[in-house]
Amino acid sequence: MIANRRRLSLHTRVGLVFTGLAASLLLILAGLWLHGTRNAIHEEVEAANRVSVQWLKALVGELNEVPPSALPIRLLGVVRPLGRIRANALEVLAPDGRSLYHSPPPTYKAGRSVPSWFAALLTPEFAPRRLPVGELQLILQPDASRSVIDAWDDLLAMAGWALALLAVIFGVSRLALDRALRPLEQVMAALDRTGSGRFDTRLPVFATPELGRLSRAFNGMADRLSEAVNDNVRLETEHEVARRMQGHLEEERRSIARELHDELAQGITAVRALAGAIVQRSGDLPAVQSPAQSIVGVTGDMQQGVKNILQRLRPLSVTGFAPALERLLGAWRTQHEEIELSVDLALGNKPLPDEVAQAVLRIVQEGLTNIVRHSGASRAELCVSRNAGRLQIRLCDNGHGRDGRPSAQAGSGFGLAGMGERVAALAGQLEFTTPADGGFCLLATLPDLILSEEVS
Amino acid sequence: MNHALQGIRVLLADDHAIVRLGFRLLLEGAGANVVGEASCGEDAVRLYAETQPDMLVMDVSMPGIGGLAALERLLVWEAKARVLMLSAHHDDIVPVRALRLGASGYLCKRAAPEEFLRAVGQVAGGRRYLDPELAQAVALAQLSGSTNPVDTLTEKELAVFLKLAEGRSVNDVAGDFCLSPSTVGTHLYNIKQKLNVRNSAELTLVAVHNGLIEA
Fold it and tell me: Which residues in chain B touch residue A386, judged by CB atoms under 8 angstroms apart?
């Protein structure tokens, strides 16, 4: 049953509701009409009854002088032509209770009857009037059946019209709704299209104000959605490009380093040795020995320069990164002795990509700076751990939480926005939390993948 | 001209001819006698046997089996050989290895000519020599019991590791060391286990990070 109702379309349901309302109204009207009709019939029959009784009384008065033996003949002679008196049946009873006369059945709508319930509803209750005429009795019985039949006929006619009206109401409301809700089909089609990934779907602005708002809201949402998708695609592309460029850069660095080491450094070593040999052999030729000595000195500088360049080209190894971090923490500790800093480093043995190492150093530095500037903390805790291809930095303090602390939103100044960009550039995540027991927590997670491995 | 090295017979092994020329002139300028020049580890071992020099000056990285493996072979054959190892790198692992293997001295190639001659003089005189620039790192590595996993490699594994890290294939390395490819494969397996690396790119990276090869 419920399932059945569910299957009805909205249009049909709203139409049914309208029709039902109208039908209820009509039923109430019908009730009122019935009430009125009942009263009218009552009054009519009663009035007819009274008039008839008075008239009969006058008639009967005239018959008082008639001798009792001739009375029945005279009475019947008077009564018979009368037939029924305005919806009253007449009956003449003999002194022994025999019926001497009964008026004929009504000729108006003769032989018709109404359903008994309807008759019971409308027929007024009247006691028969008895008029004694000598020894005879004249009985006047009010009969409302003809009025009731009239009322029934009226009711049937009205019911017919009412049904027609209800049908029209149903049809018209359904049509009107159909027209008004036609845009919903478009809305649903648009939602389906968008749902299947066609973000270019837009709705026309409908004339109906509510639907107009709906379509504007939908179009706005679709605009945002396609912007977001475009942004994502662009970011992914940018990330991919950056990754490739990073890979090429690493490759380039490697080949430059190899070139420097294999060719330049060896060449300088050779020149240095040769210059050294000249110095050895030119003790008696100061004009030769001193420039040769200079060559030895300059080549030493050059070797130092090559070494420096090679070091810069070489990615920060774990062994290079850990000391750098320790140095940073040591310097900070000596500068801010008022803040107790506990450190837990679990860097493992695997090499760390240069960018990640740089980012970690920068994030730790900025985080510590913020603690000094904004937190008023007396204690701070730093954990750096590597697990399952991810490096995590957790920096917490016991200061006064986020109060006056910049948010992570872009443009908030201080170090956090830059930190966010740095982390985002490495496809990592940055979170700030304020634990229930106070303080401020920074949590950065970076992928410690080795880019060069993917490229090669 | 000083003659501090007068009469010392030296064998030179370095894959750069011009570098060998420079060292040769330096050595000869100091009175030494360069009895041979080798451009790879195998040649160095062979020439040592042929020329019986007082000492060998050998670069760590050379084609073929390389300096460390050549040193090992040579010392197996001639335990008393005096060898001064040269390297362009400045980490602590290779020097420690070389000295443990039995090299008499270890010098960075960037050292000044006088330092080079002093190192040769020390080693030729039967003393040991360690580049002052490396001395501290080496001493610290020894003291602190370095946790670097590269230290856990055996000599053979380290030699194979260095070759593989340079990008040579298992078959190439097997050829260099006159080993069967399956033996090299076993070494490779052990190396990967010890260094916790998965592929040759990571292997190279570990080597680069440890300064064992240039990037």
Answer: none
Cβ of B209 within 8 Å of Cβ of A315? The answer is yes
- A452 with B205: Cβ contact below 8 A: yes
Q: Convert the pLDDT of each residue in A246-270 to its tens digit.
A: 778 878 877 888 788 778 888 899 9
Q: Does A100 score more than 80 pLDDT?
A: yes
Grade residue A317 by pLDDT with cuts at 50, 70 and 90: low
| Residue extents of the structural domains in chain B | 9-143, 149-209
* CATH 3.40.50.2300 given to domain B9-143: yes
**Which chain A residues are closer than 8 Å to B18 by Cβ?**
266-267, 270
* Chain A residue with minimum CA distance to B59: A266
What are B118-160's pLDDT values in tens digits?
999 999 999 989 888 777 777 766 665 555 667 778 878 888 8
How far A363 CA lies from chain B's nearest CA (Å)? 23
Q: Do A277 and B113 touch (CB under 8 A)?
A: yes
Average pLDDT of every residue of chain A: 82
With an 8 Å Cβ cutoff, are A303 and B110 in contact? yes
Answer for the pair A91, A102: CB distance below 8 angstroms, yes or no: yes
Mutate to test the interface with A, among B209, B210, B212, B213 (most CBs of A within 10 A): B209
Q: How far is A298 from chain B (nearest CA, A)?
A: 11
Residues of B within 8 A of A296 (CB-CB) are 112-113
For B8-38, the DSSP string reads -EEEEE-S-HHHHHHHHHHHHHTT-EEEEEE
For the entire predicted model, the pTM comes to 0.49
* pLDDT tens digits along A26-75: 999 999 999 999 999 888 888 888 888 888 888 878 877 778 788 888 88
- Identity of the residue in A296, A304, A317 whose CB atom sits nearest the CB atom of B209: A317
Name the band, by pLDDT with cuts 50, 70 and 90, for residue A413.
very low
> Which two structure tokens, joined as six digits, stand for B42?
């195998």
A–B: how many Cβ contacts below 8 A? 118
Residues of B with CB under 8 A from a CB of A: 1-2, 16, 18-19, 21-23, 25-26, 28-30, 88, 90, 109-110, 112-114, 116, 147-149, 196, 199, 201-202, 205-206, 208-211, 214-215
Do the two domains B9-143 and B149-209 of this chain adopt the same fold?
no
Closest CA to A446 of A389, A407, A397, A406: A389
Structure tokens at A306: 């090559």
CATH code for the structural domain at B149-209: 1.10.10.10
ipTM: 0.72
